[in-house]
Amino acid sequence: MSRNRKASRRQIKKSPFLRLFFLGLLICVSMAATVYLIFLRPGTHPQAEKNSVIAPAKMAQESLIPAPPASPVPVPQEKVIPIIAKETVAEHTKGPQIAIIIDDIGNLRKMGEKFIDLDLNLNFSILPHSAHGLKLAQKAHSKGRDILLHLPMEPIGQKWDPGPGALFLKMDAQTMRSTLLKDLAAVPLAIGINNHMGSRYSENEEAMTAFLTEIKPTNLFFIDSLTSSKSVGYKLAKNMAVKTAKRNIFLDNEKDPAKIIKQLEQLIKIAQKHGKAIAIGHPYPETLEALSKSIPLLQKDVTLTSVHNLVE
After folding, report:
1. 206-264: per-residue pLDDT in tens?
2. Which among 84, 79, 81, 80 is positioned nearest to 216, based on CA atoms?
3. CATH superfamily membership of 97-310
4. pLDDT by residue (tens digit) across 43-87?
5. Separation of CA 46 from chain center
6. What is the CB neighbour count within 10 angstroms for residue 72?
7. Structural domain spans, the chain
8. Widest CA span of the chain, in angstroms?
């Protein structure tokens, strides 16, 4: 043994710190080797075989898939153009029947809600593409009220604007049909149609025939608002076997609650004479007041019915 090795051994023997250092190093190396052999060497860990069946590409793909939400998220449904109108249920009636349609629903939310909240079986005609039409229709429908599409049609005189979704005489058949279908899609709960304005359009036999031809295959009925005394809508609908009826009275041409009540009394007289009658009103504060005051009158000797019961 060389002189240097002997000197080194003498130095280690004389230094307890060095002996402890080498002993600790030996223990660490042994522990590391044990961990590797037991846990880290491929094929020895219990989960290694299980994980090995998932291809790397598959693992990468699944890592991009977000976890499902805690509860299902409702998916908004697209509006469906109605082909066949909703079925209606006949009511038990007594005495003459009257139906009151409130037109022009959709632009005034609060006023529309006040009419819907009345304890009266009113019918609501919704303007297509109006700001609040769909929600008001849903609220009225939830109370069992009849919903109509208040279909804009061309009036006499350019000063009157029938609004979006209007039918005009200048339209070709395809444009008319497309416009009508969009209007119906905007009021999907409608079971019938009545015209908004339309004094010019409803007088034109060719135009009204084309319109009625479109709704004939469905269960949609047509109420002629008679905005023109020369309207051919009701007569054509009868001849074409489209379920139909016509307006007898406008309630609120004069916005005076007392005069509107007089119109309601006249409506009842017509119903007593003919067995039934239809009135059209509008979402005016005066009309709301008159109807509120007339609840006992409308529940006394007549049946305030859904308008679908009065079409033939």
Report:
1. 999 999 999 999 899 999 999 999 999 999 999 999 999 999 999 999 999 999 999 99
2. 84
3. Glycoside hydrolase/deacetylase (3.20.20.370)
4. 444 343 333 333 333 333 322 233 333 333 333 333 434 434 444
5. 55
6. 7
7. 3-60, 97-310
8. 140
